[in-house]
Write a structure and sequence with these properties.
This protein has a single domain, classed as Rieske [2Fe-2S] iron-sulphur domain (Rieske Iron-sulfur Protein), CATH 2.102.10.10. Helix content is 7%, strand content 41%. The protein is built from one helix and ten strands, in the order βαβββββββββ. The strands form three sheets. Strands 2-3-4-8 form a four-stranded antiparallel sheet, with no helix packed on it. A three-stranded antiparallel sheet has the order 1-10-9. Strands 5-6-7 form a three-stranded antiparallel sheet, with no helix packed on it. The longest helix has 7 residues. Bound molecules: FE2/S2 (inorganic) cluster. The site of FE2/S2 (inorganic) cluster has 8 residues, from loops.
């Protein structure tokens, strides 16, 4: 795994990302759906495992799930699991917040 720096600090991430609004990100040729929730960041594969829709076009619900805009499947942002297990889990990517920046593991 390679750690890639996304932001210089958590406060920079909070300035640049809208709360609970999915953001498409491409890191090392991997398309990621990044979500800020309070002081936490979640990163999952941007491609829905049902039929390939871009999850960064979706919404985040009260249960910390990304809801696919096409057929409404709901994936847990932490585990990648679809709540009714109608399709395979999303790949998830670790985020670490250090004193010198915010990193994603690819
Ligand atoms: S493509 Fe995402 S739920 Fe069908």
């Amino acid at each position: 795994m390679v750690w890639v720096k996304l932001f210089h600090s958590l406060s920079e991430a909070k300035d640049r990302l809208a709360e609970s609004r999915p953001q498409l990100l491409e890191v090392s040729n991997v398309r990621i759906c990044l979500v800020l929730r309070g002081d936490q960041l979640f990163a999952v594969s941007n491609k829905c495992t049902h039929n390939g829709e871009s999850l960064s076009k979706g919404k985040v619900n009260f249960a910390n799930e990304i809801v696919c805009p096409w057929h409404g499947y709901q994936f847990n942002l932490k585990t990648g699991r679809e709540y009714q297990q109608r399709s395979s889990d999303l790949e998830t990517f670790p985020i670490k917040i250090e004193t010198d920046g915010v990193y994603i593991g690819i």
